[in-house]
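Re: your question from the hallway

Yes, I did run it. Sequences:
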Amino acid sequence: MAGRSNARVPPLSERQWAFLMRVAVRIVPAVADLDAAGRSRFVAIVSKALAERPRPIQHQFGLFLGVLRWAPFLRFGSPFDRLPPEDEDTVLRWFLDAPVAKLRSGFWALRALAFMGYYGQPEVWPSLRYTPSFRGNEMLHG
Amino acid sequence: MDERRYDVVIVGSGAGGGTVAKELAPLCRQGMRVAVLEWGPKLRESEYTGREAEMAEKLYFDNGGFLTRDRAMTLAFARAYGGSTVVYTGTSLPLPEEVLARWGVPGLGHVDLRRRSEKYLGENNVHLLGEETINDNNRRFFEACRTLGYRVEQFPVNVKGCQGSGLCNLGCPNAAKQGTHRVQLPAAEAAGVEVVTNCKVERIGERDCLATVTNPPFGEPSHWPEGRYRIRARAIVVAAGAVNSPALLLRSQLPARLPALGRYFTAHPALILVGEHDRPISNFYGHPKSYYCDHFVESAKFLLETCMYFPFTTAKNLIGFGAEHARLMSRMDRMQMILVLAVDPALAENRIAVDAAGDPVVHYRFTDEVMDALVESQRVAARIFFAAGCTRVHAPAGTGFFIGANEADRLEELITREAFKLGKVSISSAHLMGGCRMGTDPATSVTDAWGQVHGVPWLFVADASLFPMCSEINPYVTIMALADRVAERVRTRLPGLPAA
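Structure:
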């Protein structure tokens, strides 16, 4: 349901999507192992969540992706997506604990979307040993 | 634009609106017309799937992650036939007498509020679940609190035929939870109240509302055709929740100056904490929220409750990412969870505003006291986890990802305020209160003790936005008791209000 008049705007460009998927693999390593259907579900969940956010938040998120991509240039001389995985993790850890709240919030949003795209898929729940049942009390008693 | 006329229009159908609807339903037998305008849908029973992302989209504003302006906290509140009573765990506690005394609202007495609360405890089948339905996640919390000498109590819950799906926060798939969608609204409709779903009220004018009906691709279609409406009424009751009620009134042109409107918002900011056992425990089967510990409310301003959340919500609430995070997530059957809630002060600066489009914007500043409470609550929760047998604990203010049981005597140095940074930690709230607070002074309150907006005799508020301060407990029964008072006042005042 569109909660606001400015919802349903295509939130990210193809290039931004490719970058987001690259970062998502560092956040949730199992994203790399998703099959085509799993990747589609990931994209569908994240797209929907982003599309329903107010336009200023979509815009800020797009900006944050740009900052995350280019900020490593200052330390490593390369954008994020040309770094080896261990350096990518170093950059992400810096953003997680960044001295500026807006940078921490930006990374929080990125993390949340990656988690939503992966853990929001009921298909992966058995691999987490999470198998809810509508008749939970019956399972409780074996 | 289609125009409709009613004697009473109620905006919102949750704990407040649903209660007012049922209490005013006898007016229909006298030939009066009462309508409830609900923004959200009425889901079909088959649509309660228990799938996290899907249900969050169908039932919550912003998928349950409405962000405060500074992005430091997410707010979870529902839009649905039944409002947030569809998605809470059914925990039902009357407001403690000492909290009401702190509220200090002249004309709002303990005996009156208690009597009304007890009416809904009965009407909504509130009772304690039997011991046989308590899972390990809850039982171990209870036993650990007892071992540590902390006061711990069982939550009364409003369920009928609970099957223990553990999916309460996604809407009960077994129709067991007795929210207003199961009790008050069906009774009101049977007595002649019209409940119009998928109907967003945009603004309130002089005894009228402007609204739009738009059907989403799920749920039952609205009783009204899609389109724009002007709805005239002799009395209007706003019960759209502590974010949307103030926002609606702020974007309306009201014939009164209300400087406190939107202000004194409180939220019980909360953290989900996780401990890990070395073997599986029963946690996601059975009712998720059986016990609470209010031992630290007076001394340290926080409350602890049992809880069990779903994969995405759990993942989001853990700090960090990558392999370490994934390893913990891969063993959800070993997790024990505790929800900690801070008792936050009612500050004028914590407020609901509206942006240029009229959408709500929530300004919330974390005081040092609230931050301290959230940090200390993690230390207490860690003690409970270890006393419950956990081998490792994950604390958002931890200096590392895990704290091992062998480090349990170093919690002061391992869980620190320095590590607890806004924007890094997932702080959430599902107890949204204030913004249209009750009181006698129009400079510091919006309504009187009966929910009537100061200076506007035809306009009432009946939801948690009335709370002048936070409730220090789960708020739903208190909302219903206050809504009962508002309905009584509307009934009394209606004969003196001119026709729409």
